[in-house]
UniProtKB/TrEMBL annotation:
Domain KANL3/Tex30 alpha/beta hydrolase-like: 24-182
Entry keywords, A to Z: Hydrolase
Stored Pfam families: Abhydrolase_11
Any one GO molecular-function label of the UniProt entry: hydrolase activity
Protein name: Alpha/beta hydrolase
InterPro entries xref list: AB_hydrolase_fold, KANL3/Tex30_Abhydrolase, NSL3/Tex30
PANTHER family: TESTIS DEVELOPMENT PROTEIN PRTD, TESTIS-EXPRESSED PROTEIN 30
Length: 204
């Protein structure tokens, strides 16, 4: 495993590389607002991607690298993420298709930056459709802006809501809540299968 700091407009971010023997593509995964890259669903998704022949970079946002738990504003998160994408796209993943993803807040960042960052697909773990108990504050618009194949894996008891299926958007519901730790093996299977499908057309 390799780890490196990446300069961004809002301080250094950290990227942790998990290599696959095959290297068909690269998946960048971001963490949730108050959590880190060791979250159980991120660990399961990383294992699945490596098994599917995809390199993974787990990306720690600058506010977490600096030791803060309160997340930065969305525009800062997005700018830092895109700076990491640009750096790793040259340094580690030159010429590879890039997939964006993350859990909760990290999934929102992946969606918002998918067009500018030229992502070929997006993986959302526990996408927070709205704050708990506040369905009127919907974030579905962030999902609607994604123009590439998207997989959303959601817990059946997630208080942050459940997105609807749509064009290019698959939704898989697993047992558990927002943490997605109740069915790590189910998440692993879903991600392996999805990656195989979305990458196949790129290899023709």
């Amino acid at each position: 495993m390799t780890s490196r700091l990446v300069d961004t407009p809002h301080g250094p971010a950290r990227a942790e590389l998990h290599c696959s023997a095959e290297g068909r593509a690269a998946l960048l995964l971001g963490h949730g607002a108050g959590g880190g890259i060791g979250a159980p669903d991120l660990v399961a998704a990383t294992r699945a991607a490596v098994e599917a022949g995809v390199h993974v970079a787990l990306v720690e946002q600058p506010y977490r690298v600096a030791g803060r738990r309160a997340p930065a504003p969305a525009r800062q998160l997005d700018a830092a993420w895109l700076a990491v994408v640009e750096d790793l796209g040259v340094r580690w993943f030159d010429g590879m298709p890039l997939l964006f993803g993350g859990r909760s807040s990290g999934a929102r960042v992946a969606c918002r930056t998918s067009v500018e960052g030229l992502a070929v697909a997006v993986l959302c773990l526990a996408f927070p459709v709205h704050p708990p108990g506040k369905p009127e504050k919907s974030r579905v618009g962030e999902l609607a802006g994604v123009e590439v194949p998207t997989l959303i894996v959601q817990g059946e008891a997630d208080p942050f809501g459940r997105p609807e299926r749509a064009h290019h958007r698959e939704v898989v519901v697993l047992k558990g809540d927002h943490s997605l730790k109740a069915d790590a093996e189910g998440l692993h299977r879903v991600v392996v299968e999805w990656l195989g499908r979305v990458l196949r057309p790129l290899e023709v």
